[in-house]
Fold this sequence. Notes:
Blueprint: E1 2-6, E2 9-11, E3 17-24, E4 32-38, E5 45-51, E6 57-59, E7 67-72, E8 77-82, E9 91-98, E10 113-114, E11 118-122
Parallel strand pairs: 2-11
Antiparallel strand pairs: 1-3, 3-8, 4-5, 4-9, 5-6, 7-8, 9-10, 9-11
Amino acid sequence: VQLVESGGGSVQAGGSLRLSCEYSQYTHNLRVMGWFRQAPGKEREGVAAIYMSSGRTYYADSVKGRITVAQDNAKDTVYLEMNSLKSEDTAMYYCAADPRIGVVPGIAPHFTVWGQGTQVTVS
């Protein structure tokens, strides 16, 4: 399974960005897809996740109300819509996936497939 992120960039505080994660191969095996971020010197943290069959979502408390995760099965893509961005949202953003039952959405070690990341900078 390959994950490819896109959509990162530089934006002013209060602005918006939409990240995309395109997945390929054996997509029917993916139970959950998550978005994580890692700022320099900090641990990788879970931002949001979506269960592919039910559409159920998970959000970290720090982003609730500002970020939305959604899937487009026709395009084999999961999106992360980010609004009201803050400087503390600056990080490398990664999408991740896993086919197993019982994956905890905000826990990075639970995910076995990762994209290369896309940088988000908020100034």
